[in-house]
Amino acid sequence: MSLFHRVIKKGGEIHKFQIQHNIVTTFLKIHFQYIFYSKYLLL
After folding, report:
1. 27: phi > 0 → left, psi -120 to 50 → alpha, else beta; which?
2. Residue 27 has what pLDDT?
3. Which of 1, 6, 27, 43 has its C-alpha lying 20 to 30 A from 16's C-alpha?
4. Rounded distance, CA 26 to CA 21, Å?
5. Distance CA 3, CA 26 (A)
6. Cα–Cα separations (whole angstroms), residue 30 to 6, 9, 34, 37
7. Which helix H or strand E contains 43, and what residues bound it?
8. Degrees (nearest 5) of the Cα angle 41, 21, 15?
9. What is the pLDDT of residue 4?
10. Whole-prediction pTM
11. What's the Cα-to-Cα distance from 13 to each of 1, 2, 32, rounded to whole Å?
């Protein structure tokens, strides 16, 4: 029972990390696209 709960907790932490990672990567993609387009428009 305790081992099962430990695995569930570990899985939850990994899942939380993946969600944060997705948010960061999405933010970076938008940020770089914004920089790219702003430079492109300035030319």
Report:
1. alpha
2. 94
3. 1
4. 9
5. 35
6. 36, 32, 6, 10
7. none
8. 150
9. 80
10. 0.52
11. 19, 17, 28
Say how far apart CA 32 and CA 19 lie, in whole Å. Answer: 20
SS3 15: helix
* pLDDT score of 29: 94
d(CA 6, CA 10): 6
pLDDT single digits (tens) 1-43: 688 888 888 888 888 888 888 999 999 999 999 988 888 887 6
Which tokens go with 36?
């790219």
Count of the separate structural domains present in the chain:
1
Token pair in block for residue 30 = 């938008």
Domain that holds residue 16: 1-42
